[in-house]
# Entry
Amino acid sequence: MHRLLELGEGLRIAFAAIVANKMRSVLTTLGIVIGIVVVTLMATVIEGLGSALDNSIKSLGADVYYVSKWDWFSDEWWKSRNRRDITLLEARQLKDRFTLAEAVVPVVQTWQATMKYGNRSVRGNVLGTEEAYVVTSGVVPQEGRFFNDLESNSGRPVCVIGHDVADNLFEKEDPIGKFIKIGGFTYRVIGVLEKEGDFLGTSMFSKDTQAFIPLNNFLRVFGGERSFDIHVKMLEGIDKEEARTELIGAFRKIRRVPAWKEDDFGINTQEFLKSIFDNVVSTIGIIGFLITSLSLLVGGVGIMNIMFVSVKERTKEIGTRKALGARRRTILTQFLIEAAALCLIGGLIGLGLSYPLSLIIDKVLPSSMPLWVVGLSLTISITVGLISGIVPAYTAARMNPVDALRYE
# Structure
């Protein structure tokens, strides 16, 4: 009870001192403000990128391998460019020979085709694929359905469109059963996918902006002289590395790649995206840590300096309180609270600036400010305050009351 009273008294005196020197207090916290802004923005960007990546990976589907002419994010793009195209026949052969897959689906696409309904039009990628695409991608029609085996094999002119395509073309109309033009050819809309969101911060690769048509129809309309991708969803419970090795071996045989030559195709997985993200996060973290540490160091020195000034200014007050029986612990607590309160004010100002800045950043990079970021920022503020204030507070607590009362 006595300690609670001491704490309450310390809080009252600390806030009274801060209020008495408002401008000095605010200016003193400038370094803390900058440090907290950096910490908060760094954390919000990492959190936002992580959420965007998780959503994007979900859209890729779990346990799915992407056999492609290209290696994702490779810095040796010229190697991929010189590779032979992957053909539909090779995709069919892989489907027949590879037994560890739940589904093997060829996918081919054309970029930025025009889709029209009435006088409205949008541009987006058009994918030709088969009914098993729902297994490898996990797409879920929000309205209608995906095309079935019969429509896929016969190459009927039906399509499933992304959420944004439906919004832009039909506004308040029901798209199901309507006819749209894709690349100048007529298709009946049989399904609309649920909204996915941007893929890695861009809508170009998001299913929201795409249309899906039966593969045989795609070949008839857009031609097959292009490289196919093959989506392979592995069976549940199998060893991933073993399955990957089996997949590579099977496709090397199909492509007749000699034993002494390296693969002339890429096997891409979501784990690769995660590794890229981890590297980005590490880089952001190191840069942010250095900037934050420097800002907080400058801020902490400022707090320590102003606390020494405060101790000097209030030496007689300290002497009087000690002469009246105040303990060292009471004086120590009072000045520690004052230092922590100063940094807390800086932290709150920093959070106040960070929130609108995070909204601006969100226009360019995905970002979000969860509660844990707020808690982290305030905890750092208070910790810096306690560390910065401990020497001045200890100096005040150790004062001799007689010397303090004689201080001029």
Observations:
- The chain is about 60% helix and 15% strand.
- Residues 263 and 331 are 73 Å apart (CA to CA).
- The longest strand covers residues 101-117.
